[in-house]
Amino acid sequence: MDESICPGCAASLSSSQLLYEGYFNTTPECWSLFTEVQGKQYGNVLLGRYTHQSTVDSYAAQHAGANHPDKSLAIHLLGLYLVIVQDDDHIETVDAWAREVWAMWADHHQTIAELL
Q: For a tag site, which of 2, 31, 72, 104 has the least CB within 10 Å?
């Protein structure tokens, strides 16, 4: 079976007929694996809450190049910096921000709750 080598992370994966039209420097097979990881995070709110952003930031930084905008890469690297270098404050900072944004939508809380 043919193998596909990802230009971003050098992963060797079995070639497929998948298509990829995004801007990351990746192969369709590597992108498919990444979306599988995301699917597991979306399926487990506790796992996703603490790992999703770092997963996205890591993948984006590892697969920079191609049509991936420099400003996007900068944001992903800043995200990794916050998690790795300033880890002690990151969770509290993001939590405070999320609560502030939620409070801004107080007039709509009931409507949002009804969507569940």
A: 2
What global pTM score does this model have? 0.70
Phi and psi at 3, nearest 5°, equal: -115, 150
Q: How far is CA 21 from the centre of its chain?
A: 17
**One digit per residue, pLDDT tens: the chain, 116 residues?**
699 999 999 999 999 988 888 888 999 999 999 999 999 888 888 777 778 888 999 999 999 887 877 788 898 999 888 888 876 666 677 677 678 878 988 998 998 888 87
Smallest CA-to-CA distance from 48 within 59, 57, 39 is with: 39
Cβ atoms within 10 Å, residue 76: 21
